[in-house]
Amino acid sequence: MLDTGLKILLVASEVAPFAKTGGLADVAGSLPKALLLQGNDVRVVLPRYRSISGFNTIGDFPVQVGPRKETCIVRTSQIEAKSPEGVRFVPVYFLDNYHYFDRERYYMFPDEAERFAFFDLACLKMCEALNFIPDVVHCNDWQTGFIPLLIKERARNNPVWEGVASCFTIHNLRYQGNFPRDVLYLLGLGQEYFHPEAVEFYGQVSFMKAGIMYADVINTVSVTYSREIQTPEYGEGLDGVLRKRAKDLYGIINGINYHEFDPKTDPRIFKNFGPDDLEVRKENKYALQREVGLPISDKPLIGVVSRLVDQKGLDILLEAMPSILSLDVEFILLGTGDKFYEEAFSALKKRYPDRVAVFIGFNGVLAQRIYAGSDIFVMPSRFEPCGLGHLIAMRYGSIPIVRKTGGLRDTVMDYDRDSGTGNGFVFEEYSAEALTEAVRRAVSVYRDAGYWQRLVRDTMGLDFSWNKSAALYTELYLEALGRKRRVERPA
Ligand code: ADP
After folding, report:
1. Is 3.40.50.2000 the CATH classification of the domain at 278-463?
2. In this structure, which CATH number among 3.40.50.300, 3.40.50.2000, 3.40.50.720, 1.10.290.10 belongs to the domain 7-255+467-486?
3. Residue closest by Cα to atom 24 of ligand 1
4. Is 178 left (phi over 0), alpha (psi -120 to 50) or beta?
5. Is the CB of 362 under 6 A from ligand 1?
6. Which atom of ligand 1 is nearest to the CA of 171?
7. 3-class SS at 224?
8. 423: left (phi over 0), alpha (psi -120 to 50) or beta
9. Ligand 1 geometric centre to CA of 159 (Å)
10. pLDDT tens sequence across 18-44
11. What confidence tens digit (pLDDT) does each residue in 150-205 have?
12. Domain residue ranges in the chain
C-alpha cells in the first residue's frame, strides 16, 4: 500500500451525505475516506447550502469578489471512515455566505458565475486562514475550475502557494460553466486571460476550460471517457484543448463506498442479504412491488434510477418501452429532471398501470430499494463518464444492461451463457432496437433460474470499491507534484 502522507484538499460543489444531486457527491464523499485510510491527510470543502445546518463555526475572513466585499464563514463537520482498525474522520469545511448560498437549491441561478467565483476565491483564503496549505488541491467539475489558475496567480505574491499542485477531475464535460467575460473581473484576474490560449471559449469565459488549461494534471472518471472526450463526438467543443493536454490527461474509474452501499447492512432496504441468500433478496423484490403498487410476481423487474436528462438515453428507452413490456416484465423508474421526460414516463405509467411504476423526485431510500429489489438495472446512456447507478445495482444483485460507452464500457462485460463470463448485457448502437435486443437477451437468461442465480451471485462478488482507484489517485497526486508548472500570463 502507498503511504505517502500527502496533504490533500478535495473541493467540490456537492459532497454526500451533506448535499447531493448526482454521482459527483458520491465520489466527493467516499474517495476522501479511502485516501485517509491510505495514510493521507485529506480534507473536503463545499458550499454551505441552506439544507446544511447546525455545524460549528471555526473562523471567517473577507473575500473580494469584483466590487463586492463578502464575508466567508467557515463551518466544520466530519465524514466517518470505518476500517478494520477502527473509525477515523475526514474533516469537512463548509464555506458559508448568506448572499450566495442560503437558497432553496444548489444550482441554476442567474448569478451562478459570481457564486462559484466566490467559492473558488474563498477556498484559497480558507487554506491560509486555517493554516492548512495542501500539497495538492483536487478540484472537481466546472464549479472549481478557476482554482488551479488562482493557485498559480497567488504563488506570484505568496510563496506558500509555490509548492501546491492541482488536479482537475472532469466528472461530466457537458456542464462547462460558460459565462460573460466580466467573470474575470470578479475573480480578480486580468483581461489578458480572455484569450483562446487561456480561458476564452466561443466569446465567453469557461470555468471548465480554465480547469483543463491550468491544472497540473487532469483526469476523468473512466479510461474510455478520457479517450472519448478527445474526439469531436464527445468533446463538447473542448476536444481540441483536451488533445493538447493529452499527456497530462488520465482516466480513473470511480469506486463506490462499500460501507454505505452494502446489502448486508443497508438500513434503507426491507431485508438485508448477501450473495449467498438470494431467497432473501426476493423478499425485497416482493416488498418493493407491494410498496410501489405493482403486482407481486416473479416476472423480471426492470429498474431505472436516474437524472432525467438527455445524456441518460431516455429517448431510446421511451421508444423501446412498448417492445420491452411485450416481454412480460415489470418496470419501475425513479428520477427527476427535464419536464419532458417526467411527463412522458408519467404518461407511460397511466398507459400501463399494472406493469409500470414511476416516481418523479429525488428519494435516496426508494433508490436503494430499487437496487435491492429489481432484477435488471437499465442504463442506456448516450454518454456516461463513469456511472455509479449500475455499480451500486451490481453490488445489490441487479444485473445491468448498459450501452457500450465511457465507464459503462469499462465496468460491464457482456454475459456469455456458454462460458459463464460477463456481468451484464451490453449493446453498442444507440437505438431502441439495440436496447430492446439486450433486454430480450437478459430476460431469456432470467428465465433460466440456475444461470441467472449464478450470474447474480458472481456479479455481487465483484470488487468496485475505492481500494484500487484511491491508490491510483494517490499516484496521480504525486504526478501532479512532479509536473507542477509555472504559468506565464498571456501576452
Ligand atoms: P450522474 O452523476 O450523471 O447523475 P451517476 O450514475 O454517476 O449519474 O450517479 C447517480 C447517483 O445519484 C447514484 O447514487 C444514484 O442512486 C443517485 N440518484 C440519481 N437519481 C436519483 C433519484 N431520483 N433519487 C435518488 N437517488 C438518485
Report:
1. yes
2. 3.40.50.2000
3. 362
4. beta
5. yes
6. 2
7. helix
8. alpha
9. 41
10. 999 988 999 999 999 999 999 999 999
11. 999 999 999 999 999 999 999 999 999 999 999 999 999 999 999 999 999 999 99
12. 7-255+467-486, 278-463
